[in-house]
Amino acid sequence: MTQILIAGAISLAVAILLTPVLIREFARRRWGQEIRQDGPASHQAKAGTPSMGGVAILIAIWAGYLGSYLFSWAMGDGGPSASGLLVLGLATGLGLVGFLDDFVKLARHRNLGLNKTQKTVGQLVVAIVFAILFLQFPDSKGRTPASDHLSYVRDIEVITLTGVGFVFFCWLVVYAWSNAVNFTDGLDGLAAGSTAMVMGTYVLITMWQSTYSCDVNSDATCYDVRDAHDLAVVAMVAAAACLGFLWWNAAPAKIFMGDTGSLALGGVVAGLSITTRTELLMIVIGALFVAEMISVVVQVASFRTTGKRPFRMAPFHHHFELAGWDQTTVIIRFWLLTAISCALGLGLFYGEWVAG
Q: How far is CA 240 from the centre of its chain?
């Protein structure tokens, strides 16, 4: 527990202290956000706000994670696990794709960076690499960081994904979550605050899995998750990095995380869902991200098939802005929806354990 708290403290401090440095540097270089002309009128005032703040989030995450293990080694404990490093590696790989997208936007002073194909290929390559790696590095019990079964709270034994099937499934999870968080990142602090709550939920889940690990107990309620304690460290540093960044990203935002941050955080969400064997439960916990992504899919599908748009603008947080809601009202209510979905997810997780 001490290591988890130290990891969070380091990550929070780095995010809070590093972000204003980036704000000044990006402002000096005039690396400001370009705003869509068809968006809400209130967003036009945000033009020129420094972007690519996800750099601070990634650095804070790694600083908290590695810094906590300096403490762990000093106390004579072990080092980082394969599971934790793979989740952070996945986040970093997607963050690099987002960084390229942001850099093109800023260098060319336009709202669009990489085109859709280029970004998709980047996400595909990262997902395939880590899909293969997730099934490597068996521990002394033969457990790999990921399971080749579809999972809810535990593996669903009757659904096995092998070879190409697992790679495709992993790509689907990574692509869906990275884009879902990316779509949510459209209002000041919305993505950072929501992701912090989701990560906080996973701190509790992974600590519970570690306490009731099959390494300690072998009854029907134990969790056969490898490196659950280290995954708790990962979830904590991600939550703390989001909160530290939120200090500067909350309305009115002094900096945006850009695709560097949103794709990286989507990678943490995807990676934790796979390594904790909770891919289906994550759909409940991350319900806001799911709803944002569905709104985009529905908007595009409806327009292409009928020529009509069911929302004034997608993702649907913009729909409420165009309907007259104040931006802060939308953000707070969406945060409340995230809190409700996190509580529901925790309830389902605990209920499954109680049922045995």
A: 13
